[in-house]
Amino acid sequence: MNHLAQSQLNLFSNATIDRMARTVGDVDELDALASNDHARFLPVYNAKVLVANKAGQLTAVAIEKAELASRFSCDAPPTYLGCKNNLHYFAVGITGVDEEIEEFSDLRQSAALLNDNDAALLGYALAILTWQRNHQHCGTCGAPTVTRQGGHVLQCTDPACAREHYPRTDPAIIVLVEHGDRALFGRKAEWPTHRYSTIAGFVEPGESVEQAVVREVAEETGVEVIESCYHSSQPWPFPSSLMLGYSAHAGRSQIHLNDRELEKAKWLSRQELNDQLVCGEFLPPTPISISFRLIEDWFNRQSAVPFRVLCENNKLQG
Ligand SMILES: [Zn+2]
Question: 160 C-alpha vs ligand 1 centroid, how far in Å?
Fold first, then answer.
């Protein structure tokens, strides 16, 4: 399997911006970049992003400095994301928005209507600004932090500490478990009725990703994983996860909801999944998720009708 190609099919994973450009230099150089005509700013307000809607197709709104200054108040220096097509992109947190006038969008809702590149760019902007907002104080000594290196480092302002903090990404596994011709699905009580997904959970300290796959499946479903294989990854900026997708095979298939995180878990063959989709007993995860892609890859291996087409025909995408 070509994991690079697989990952590029996951939404938020296919940014074509050149991140290396952001290593260019010091504060003065970044200020100069942010001030020149090639600078474009992606406003983020209250964990929401700015998008334009043209006949149902959404695009990221990247505005020039003069427009940024006239429309918004910024709550911190802009964060440099990188360069694309000779334009330099910055993420900028803004305040004081009149929500009657400016329509900011929840990226989780709007992502499916964005092209891959815009979704990835906005996901990147949202993730790094969320990290900054959640690390305004040093985790070591509690003093305030300030941004450095274009916003990619937060430094403690207490000279006795001066610790540098780097962006956090929380690894989480997500796995489609197979047993014979069936796959394992689970649902949480708080999800919409009939919504199911693959099994997922955070990697714990001192644990390998592969161990996390085995543990999470056992904790949530009682099913024993005897073999796992990496599939692809997806940054998931809600707020800061990196989803590590696996496929796995089960030894023992008996279900037992050990940690009660899931309300229900079940094995379905492709035919059973097809039938439950049609009759509305299975609502798939959102099509922007790696969970959907794991199910899709498994389903399409032995199906004349692609999973995505089946879902669209039944208008069941969440
Ligand atoms: Zn400190």
Answer: 8
